[in-house]
Design goal:
The chain is built from seven helices and twelve strands. It is of the alpha/beta class. The protein has two domains: 64 residues, membrane protein fhac (Ubiquitin-like (UB roll)), CATH 3.10.20.310; 137 residues, 3-Layer(aba) Sandwich (Rossmann fold). Strands 6-5-4-7-8-9-10-11-12 form a nine-stranded mixed sheet, covered by helices on one side. The chain has a three-stranded mixed sheet with strand order 1-3-2. Strand 10, helix 7 and strand 11 form a beta-alpha-beta unit. The termini are far apart.
């Protein structure tokens, strides 16, 4: 008996080709729409006022005025948010010694946000007729009048050459004294009035509470600062009357009472 061959299911014989014929034009249509839409968006962004810069916001600046930063950045030369050269704007701002770091961000459709990381002065370096603000690592932020920033301790520069603005203090003794201040906790730094890097015992400080701190070199800072923080708290809370504290040997500090 002859076996009959089963004919292919007609439902599958034409269905897949018809789907392919439908998908290919649809995909081309979507691609064309995306290209045209993208071109339209680019055209609107670049050649119309859609992304025109209207607002420039500065944050993080305590000492630098926003108008000074605006002029320094050069942002007034640019009108379009999309084509704004954020890297160039940041580099322009970092030309000011006060500026440690900058972050420039676009915020659609009309805003530029600029975050300024300012340097934090810890002392005033007294060079006689002039003075310099210095950061905790010895970076000389810039020249100031001797009577400015009275809340900061004054560090005696001795006969050392004045620092260059925007550079690290070169004299080793002065640099050690500044680093010692920079490493101190805020409660200790707040009572410092004068710093002398040229004492034979290392850095020596006069405090606003009436006693001296014989600090020595800027070594073993953590232990020294823990002792100083405890002493400052005790002097304030219990009205101790001391002449000096010597923390050159942090494990066995010496305190002399008046």
């Amino acid at each position: 008996m002859k076996r009959l061959r089963r004919s292919p299911d007609s439902r599958h014989s034409f269905h897949m080709p018809s789907v392919r014929r439908f998908l290919r034009p649809a995909l081309w249509a979507v691609a064309i729409l995306l290209i045209v839409g993208g071109g339209l968006v680019v055209s609107l962004a670049l050649f119309t006022g859609t992304c025109r810069i209207k607002h420039v916001n500065f944050s993080g600046n305590k000492y630098l005025q926003a108008e000074h930063l605006r002029q320094l950045s050069g942002i007034e030369e640019y009108t379009n948010l999309v084509t704004l050269p954020v890297g160039r704007i940041a580099r322009n701002l970092q030309g000011d010694p006060w500026v440690k770091a900058v972050k420039v961000q676009r915020h659609l459709l009309h805003t530029v946000n600029i975050r300024i990381d300012e340097r934090a002065p810890v002392a005033v370096l007294d060079c006689g007729s002039v003075a310099y603000l210095v950061e905790g690592d010895g970076f000389a932020i810039g020249k100031i009048k001797p009577d400015e920033f009275k809340e900061l301790p004054r560090v005696h520069n001795g006969g050392a050459a004045p620092p260059l603005g925007g550079a690290i203090v070169s004299d080793k003794k002065v640099l050690q004294c500044i680093k010692a201040i920079g490493g101190m906790p805020g409660s200790v730094r707040a009572i410092l009035a004068l710093g002398n890097p040229f004492d034979g015992r290392g850095s020596v400080f006069i405090t606003s509470l009436g006693f001296s701190i014989i600090y020595g070199p800027a070594t073993n800072e953590k232990s020294k600062n823990e002792v100083l923080e405890a002493v400052v708290t005790d002097v304030k809370n219990n009205k101790r009357n001391i002449e000096y504290i010597d923390v050159r040997m942090a494990d066995s500090p010496v305190i002399k009472l008046k």
